[in-house]
Amino acid sequence: MKYSLSLTVNDEQYNLLVEASHTLMEVIRDGIGLTGTKCGCEDGRCGTCTVLLDGELVKSCLVLGLQAQGKSVLTIEGLGTPDHLHPLQIAFLEHGAVQCGFCTPGMLLTAKKLLDENPNPTEEDIRHTLVGNLCRCGVYTHATRAILSVARKS
Amino acid sequence: MLNCCYCEPTTVAEALTLLAEHGDGARVVAGGQVIALLLRQGFIKPSCLVSLQSVAGLDGITAEQRGVRIGAMVTLHRLGNAGNEYPTLRALSEAAHTVADQHIRNRGTLGGNICGAHPASDINTALMTLNAEVTLVSTQGERMVNLHEFLAGPFTTTAKPGELLTEVTIPGFALRRSAAVYCRFSPRAGDFPVVSVGAFVSLDDTGQCQEPRIVLGNCLGAPTRATEAEQRLAHRNLLEDTRSLTEAATLAATHLTPRSEPMASSAYKQDLVGVLTRAALTEAVARALEVRP
Ligand SMILES: Cc1cc2nc3c(=O)[nH]c(=O)nc-3n(C[C@H](O)[C@H](O)[C@H](O)COP(=O)(O)OP(=O)(O)OC[C@H]3O[C@@H](n4cnc5c(N)ncnc54)[C@H](O)[C@@H]3O)c2cc1C
Ligand code: FES
Ligand code: FES
Question: Could you give the CA distance from residue B151 to residue B218 in angstroms, rounded to a whole number?
Fold first, then answer.
């Protein structure tokens, strides 16, 4: 059975028809066509599908689309634009924290949430927060330095 | 394509009616952290998903005479901080804080973790250490059962069709000098524990240990009391006889034959049980005396 779902993604309103079993990740990628949100494992382990749902970090493959009814989603496309990169995106590039880039959208959103809540994190805080975002290329150290550099600048 | 409806009731009564109407085909959705996966993998084919996210009154934490009552929809993130305000929940907070990662703790709920009945559930092991009771409600009425009886084995509970878990009660500690501790080991942060141990001790005025509890997680299908080890501690004076902690840890390690897994043999888990039990008991006694080791 299809249900109508309305939600805001990156400040734009969307109305879609979704199945009860569709995940928020499917809604974002297949329904809306925003493919910056990556699908790594689809079982909650990798964190590449991370988005902010009403400001909260979630793995969008573990949220049903209908659970996001009326809510607001921030995906990587809403963090910065190619012309106006977010300071975290610039720092990730400068610190070599992007290799293949598959984990990058999720890591950036996790980092954004961390800095929103704690503008002055320690290295330990950053490592603890990145637990849910796996990187096969192993950029953890570079990502940690990048996040620290943004915190120091602001 | 799965032909499944989705409902978002706003009261417990409405949710119960939906569960009764759909019988075996109904499935409760709390945070969805397990459900989303089960649906995708086709492990479950429900005819109706009953979401609890708009149901009022399931997310409170209140201290009462008989103990602290925690609503089923309280998130693991919130549970992770609850120990600061409610001292008897400290070990539960320790457990909640180690579950998976921030993303999953934000959405995963107390009720969902319990009812998911994962053999390695940090929450269930900690709750059993605290002698928790769960409240189950259906259109037929309400019952309270000890968590020990509620958990039936891996991914299985004794919940009857149509029953909703609405809250958990953590009884108050009878003796002032009481404390619980939760310890776990996983090689990587964010993973389920290979083994975990919860320890509860309660000392009378002379230092004698009353009704100790030692609970082992991820050894068998559900958290298990290490009864021989508990008996070794009961009525011992833990201030004078500190050897009994080590002896209890040894008994806990040999008490059962843990289920082996690809990454952890049974013997390895037994070793871990010994080490973690010793650590948990030592810390529990120190906490009960409010003296840090
Ligand atoms: C990658 C990953 C890592 C994890 N690591 C850990 C870990 O280290 N330690 C740990 O303890 N857990 C771990 N978990 C499990 C996680 O904590 C649970 O998935 C989560 O707490 C489930 O809560 P939920 O509210 O999302 O449940 P849901 O997915 O909504 O529900 C889970 C089950 O419980 C039933 N249910 C839910 N609420 C109720 C209710 N109130 N009454 C009756 N039935 C109900 C549902 O029908 C379903 O069968 C992990 C999960 C993932 C995906
Ligand atoms: S795709 Fe969601 S956690 Fe891996
Ligand atoms: S940069 Fe390749 S997965 Fe992280």
Answer: 13
pLDDT value, residue B3: 84
pLDDT band at B1 (very low <50, low <70, confident <90, very high): low
Residue B246 banded pLDDT, cuts 50, 70, 90: very high
Joined together, the tokens standing for residue B97 give 């804080």
Contact B185, B195 (CB under 8 A): yes
- Residue B103: list chain A partners with CB under 8 A: 47, 50, 57-59, 62, 110, 132
Q: Cβ–Cβ of B6/A62 closer than 8 Å?
A: no
Q: Which of A47, A78, A109 is the last residue of a domain?
A: A78
CA B131 to chain centre: 10
The total number of residues shown for chain A amounts to 154
* Domain membership flag for residue B237: yes
In chain B, the percentage of residues whose pLDDT exceeds 90 is 94
SS3 B92: helix
Instruction: Quote the number of domains for chain B.
Output: 3
Nearest CB among A3, A19, A57 relative to B2 is that of A19
Do the Cβ atoms of A37 and A26 come closer than 8 Å?
no
pLDDT digits (tens, 9 = 90+) for A78-122: 999 999 999 999 999 999 999 999 999 999 999 999 999 999 999
For ligand 1, whether the C-beta of B30 sits within 6 Å is yes
A41 CA: nearest ligand 2 atom: 4
**Confidence band for B71, pLDDT divided at 50, 70 and 90:** very high
* Boundary-marking domain end, from A30, A54, A78: A78
ipTM of the complex: 0.96
Three-class secondary structure of residue A114 per DSSP: helix
Q: pTM of this prediction?
A: 0.97
Our mutation pick for probing the ligand 1 site, out of B4, B45, B99, counting the most ligand atoms within 8 A of Cβ, is B99
- Which of A48, A61, A62, A73 has the highest number of chain B CBs within 10 A, making it the mutation to test binding with B? A62
Inter-chain residue contact B102 with A64, CB threshold 8 Å: no
